[in-house]
Amino acid sequence: MEKPMTEPVHAVKFSVPEPAKTASKQESLHALQWLAQNRAAIRSSNSYVEAHGLPLAKIRLY
């Protein structure tokens, strides 16, 4: 039995991998800074999709 999702499917999810495994500390810091700078835009986009649905969803082929 699958666990119910706590967030909408369209929510943008980001994860920053451990620096030692895939990226340098500087790259990870850059990723965290980007997330902080764009947090408002990401939330705004997710709110729009929650209220209006995905853009062009009616014409997608899948």
Number of strands: 0
Instruction: Provide mean pLDDT, rounded.
Output: 78
Q: Can you tell me the residue ranges where pLDDT is under 50 for at least 5 consecutive residues?
A: none
Share in helix: 40-55%
Distance between the termini: 26 Å
Task: Note the total helix count.
Answer: 2
Q: What radius of gyration results from the CA coordinates?
A: 16 Å
Shape: elongated
Strand proportion: under 5%
For the largest beta-sheet, the strand count, sense and barrel status come to: none
Written as H for each helix and E for each strand, in order along the chain, the element string is HH
The secondary structure category is mainly alpha
Give the SSE map.
Blueprint: H1 19-22, H2 25-52
Pfam families: CcdA
InterPro entries: Post-segregation_anti-tox_CcdA (IPR009956)
Keywords: Toxin-antitoxin system
Provide a concise account of the structure shown:
This protein has 62 residues and is mostly helical. It has helices at residues 19-22, 25-52.
Description:
- Helices cover 52% and strands 0% of the residues.
- With 62 residues, the protein is mostly helical.
- The two termini are 26 Å apart.
- The model has no long low-confidence stretch (mean pLDDT 78).
